[in-house]
Predict the structure.
Amino acid sequence: MKVLIVGMGKLGVQLAEAFVYKGNDVTVVDQKQSALQKVSDQLDVLAIQQNGVEMSNLGKTQVSQMDLTIAVTDDDETNILICFLAKRKGCKQAIGRVRNPEYYHQIEFIKNEMDIDYIVNPDRTTAFEIRDYLLKDITLNMENFAQGQISLMDIHVHNLCSVAGKQLKDLDGMEKVRVVAVSREGKVIIPYGDLLIEDDDVLYLVGQSQDVTSFTAGCGVSTEQKQIQSVVILGGGRIAYYLARELKKAGKTVKIFENNHERCKYLAEHLDDVLIIYGDGTDLTLLGEEEAFDADALVSLTGLDEENLLFSLLAKQNGMKHVVSKVSRPNYIPIIEKLGVDAAINPVTITASEIMRYVLGGKVASLSLLLSGMAEAVEIAVQAGSYVTQDALGKLDIPRGLVVGAVLRNNTVLIPNGETKIEPGDRVVVFTLNSEMGRLEQLFYPPKKGRIRELWNNR
């Protein structure tokens, strides 16, 4: 597939990585040479320095031959116009980022009138992700696949009793779950039986949902029911606005701390029954007076990662059970993990996942970019004629960076081993490093002769 991405901010770079690793032809556009240099040094892309909204400039990108244009500049109106012009010039599909809440009720109208195939709102998407985490019944951080029958959980080893210092093959209770990856010091390890587990590791476990929770409970992790009724939000930006709306719909009590007076006025005018407090969230006296630490959960959503780290640390030191922090810089995630924060939310990764799910369409049932885009978990419905159906997994040429974590067959979840043979109709959850993402097509989809693939690898 030929992909044009306009805007090389954090989201644009992560999308470029995802499409390049899947073997697509990617062209990137930005007005800043420094932004283009950074991405072209890391990826095999065609980089063009220009204003992507000008029709003549779009012509230079050969937009008429593109399968997909993605506009993710900092300006909503620019993104809308780029998508409109790209479609007029003959591009097959266009996706735009639109963040302004004022456009929220006009999205369908904009899509129809401007012929835009998909509009993504990172702030709303991130807010929904946080909402889902807060309203989940249990305290564990899980991604669900196969309509909830298979779960992928990340769990810190220091929360597991008698696990650190053991080899993976010596862990008890692993018959029904599988460790598909280990995160260590910001890097991803595809595990093997002799891997020695360290206290700072994060394990990624796959299995039937109840088996995953049973395994962690057997290792001393609490699976108590969450009973969140009150939430404190630090920072009153767009994510906070959408999150407060959703929590109020769910009947929760919400307080927002914001240190910009004009923003406080806006929130007070647009959010009913939400307490807006004008003040600095780092002021312990203010937090104490407003009983911030008496809430059931705290969500830190300021524009600075450093402030979110500080708020999260203060909340944990004051005994809060549920703390969620927004983190934009991936290198801060290991620090967040060591602070014991329950969930570190990266809006860029969440938004990139949403866009990739849309682009892949029917090829995957579900997709989650993990570890700031270094890996992904994909649910695939296996088709007849696929390479993986030809023999047992242990006899196939499957790269080490790609792991079949679980199989759903006839409503039964299987944890595969080398003797397992994948059958047509199975639904498999695959964990893959970004370096092996391009192999998914070869392994899990039958070859099509004399026909161009829709949106994957049709060079």
User: Anything to note?
Assistant: The first helix runs from residue 10 to 21. Residues 450-459 have pLDDT under 50 and may be disordered. The chain has 14 helices and 22 strands.
